[in-house]
Amino acid sequence: MTLTVPDLTVLTAADISGVIEADREACVEAVRLSYLWHDEGDSALPHSSFLRFPHRHRDRAIALPGYLGGGADVAGIKWIASFPGNTAQGIPRASAVLVLNDVGTGYPYALLEASVISASRTAASAVLGAEQLIGGRRAPTVAFIGTGLIADHVRRFLRDLKWDVDAYRLYDLDPAAAATFGTALKDDGAEDITVCTDIADAMAADLVVLATVAGEPHLHDPALLAHRPVVLHLSLRDLGPELVLAAQNVTDDIDHAVRERTSLHLTVQQTGNRDFVDGTLADLLTGRLRRDPERAAIFAPFGLGVLDLAVGAWAFEQVVAAGGGRSIPGFFPSSGVTS
Ligand SMILES: NC(=O)c1ccc[n+]([C@@H]2O[C@H](COP(=O)([O-])OP(=O)(O)OC[C@H]3O[C@@H](n4cnc5c(N)ncnc54)[C@H](O)[C@@H]3O)[C@@H](O)[C@H]2O)c1
């Protein structure tokens, strides 16, 4: 059999947004399956590599390489930059590309805009975790603490997956961001929307989405969890160890999540063990772990590169099947003879 060198195909943010907006259930299913395949050991997932800058302390770029088997059989890498100061200048915090590699030849065959993939897989994972912990798609009150781009993607997934929500509470250090988010909820048809000036009022919700850019814990009082909410701790660093220790803790991959000064990492440093981590989303999906109704539950997913690969490969197939994407013939030397 003769191997052929592939063309490289480029997909834009618009290409990818189109397929995700058309079928968020399928996006969640791609995420669900990738958790299960990863859990079965049918993946390779080196630790994410963090590039930090000597003179730009808030900024970073992260490389997430990986391989996902199962029905995906795809390798690749997401390269995502986070510059929190961008938003004040009118452009998003995160920018990213995803490279997909063919597992037969190793060749990269696709280059995808990946900020949309990254935000979508994060939101899909969040709503999947919420559904597992709550036992359905109903939350009387939902709070968004940090109402930026990731929160907005969670809003869209909750809406399109037809979650039953009575009321919303919003809190953001930037009141304008909370107000804009409130308008988007109103456009979705929500009526009961409160912009809170005290973060504790927002925390009083049944389902709390934490999507700030806090670098250090700013929530320390375990009484904030006394009403036993489900907390989706997407920003990973908001909660002090006191809150972590007061809750049932679920993550995506314990080895990955207990790093990089996440709240889970700080709690390990304080306690000297990982015993307070109850399990993973895959444990919930397979029935090995159940929600403890006596405590709050915190789902803090570190964000696994296999999710980007799964959603990216699924989006690639959809776009290319519909005749989309831009192919670049001759991107790679094809003869195998190079000077
Ligand atoms: N776990 C994952 O897999 C994953 C994936 C992607 C992004 N994230 C994280 O999600 C977070 C949000 O990302 P984004 O793209 O929406 O950022 P963004 O800059 O668009 O929005 C962040 C919002 O949080 C607000 N904020 C900052 N500090 C706050 C605080 N202490 N309290 C309340 N509000 C605060 C900001 O004003 C802003 O409106 C980031 O921390 C990012 O690293 C996690």
Automatic annotation (TrEMBL):
Gene: sbnB
Organism for this UniProt entry: Actinoplanes sandaracinus
InterPro entries tied to this protein: NAD(P)-bd_dom_sf, ODC_Mu_crystall, ODC_N, SbnB
Full protein name: 2,3-diaminopropionate biosynthesis protein SbnB
Residues passing through the membrane, by range: none
Source superkingdom: Bacteria
